[in-house]
# Entry
Amino acid sequence: MHSPISCSNAKPNKAAIPILRRLLKLFLPYWKLGSFALLTIFSMDILNVASPKILELLIDQAIPHKDLVLLAVLSFLLLAVPSLTGMVGIAKDFLDVTLSQHIMDDLRR
# Structure
């Protein structure tokens, strides 16, 4: 039995191409806002990867070598990264809402 989503015979739907062009025209005036939104998404991804790496350094380097300076720096980073992630998330939400409101306003015209 074939699944409804199959990649082997995937052909672009001809009706979808004009819709995609229309969507791109709607986003084009707000490319800067969209770029900042993408930047915040990538920043959040990097910050989400940072916490496990910091914890790994803390466990593998700072504690076994009894390096108190490294332990203090990594502990501070473990507290700072979630705070920074939250702030970037707030900025992302603001950009997403602003972008969507601009596009909805354009659709109403």
Notes: Residues 29 and 103 are 9 Å apart (CA to CA). Residues 50-109 form one domain. The mean pLDDT is 89.
